[in-house]
Amino acid sequence: MNPSPIAVFDSGLGGLTVLRALRERLPHEDFFYFADTRFLPYGDKPEVFLKERGVLIAEALARRGAKALVVACNTATAAAAEAIRAATALPIVALEPGVKPAASMTRCGVVGVLATTRTLQSERFRRLVGNHAAGVEVIARACPGLADAIETDGPESPAVAALLDAYVAPLAAAGADVVVLGCTHYPWVAEGIARRMPAGTQLLDTGEAVARQLERLLLADGRIGGGTGRLTLATSGAPQAVTVTVDRLFGHKMQVEHWEP
Ligand code: DGL
Fold it and tell me: What CATH number did the domain enclosing 168 receive?
């Protein structure tokens, strides 16, 4: 047992969709969630910036006493996972779009992927598709502006609706029967995506798979358990603004502290 918290980070509040699955699976762990909202969105930042930022955050979280790290951001994983693994000795779970399960789930052989520009342009994504979706048609659609609109305007806002109209239409037109939510912000708008696809389309998010992987890792390292289910939320941006967004997304207020890695 190890009572230190598990650190989770994302560019903003998308990773909270992952955190929800982590806390359900591991209710006796403490979590420290860091939203790097000062630099939201990550999706259109240069790879070199994301690499440096990811390493800086991971090192600071290790110094802060985290016992494991979850990179709850597909974009940060695509750009920085290898650099982060090289820079810290922490056990790390980094998530990436669920292309592999989607390729085995599709019946019609067409899979849609919604993700950020940076994720889709990455070498890691190219390899993921090449290695695990060779016999399948993958329709990948970048969604610039969507993650920030979800946070700033809210999942039900007209701004988000207009972006979803534009980004989901090509997947419906191509006949995809599985849609990969390749950005941790997108589960917040899963209903809006489902409404724009034919009935029966499966949406795939990786929260639960990440939770199972984290559990395996903690067990293997003898680090599981010892917490009390405590959650600390921190941001590099303005705590007040994050409190408002958390309230909008979760329907209740939570304390948010300022933290600079
Ligand atoms: N939530 C992030 C992801 O999973 C990125 C959103 C953004 O900052 O662009 O890719």
Answer: 3.40.50.1860
Domain-located, residue 21: yes
Q: How many domains does the chain have?
A: 2
**Atom of ligand 1 lying closest to residue 14 CA:** 1
- Residue of 34, 75, 163, 205 best suited for mutating to test ligand 1, as the one with most atoms within 8 Å of CB: 75
- pLDDT per residue over 45-97, tens digit each? 999 999 999 999 999 999 999 999 999 999 999 999 999 999 999 999 999 99
- The side-by-side arrangement of strands in the sheet containing 231-235 is 92-94, 68-71, 6-10, 31-35, 231-235, 256-258
27 by Cβ neighbours in 10 Å (0-12 / 13-18 / 19+) ranks as: exposed
Q: Tell whether ligand 1 has an atom less than 6 A from the beta carbon of residue 235.
A: no
Reported as a single tens digit per residue, the pLDDT across 160-194 is 999 999 999 999 999 999 999 999 999 999 999 99
For the entire predicted model, the pTM comes to 0.96
Q: Which residues are catalytic?
A: 73, 183
**Are 50 and 24 part of one and the same domain?**
yes
185 and 106 in a common domain: yes
Q: Which domain holds residue 131?
A: 99-204
Same domain? For 176 and 232 the reply is no
Would you say the CB of residue 147 lies under 6 angstroms from ligand 1? yes
Q: Which of 30-39, 44-53, 114-123, 222-231 has the lowest mean pLDDT?
A: 222-231
CA dihedral 19, 23, 26, 30 (to 10 degrees): 90
Task: For residue 178, tell me if it sits in a domain.
Answer: yes
The ligand 1 atom at the shortest distance from the C-alpha of residue 72 is 4
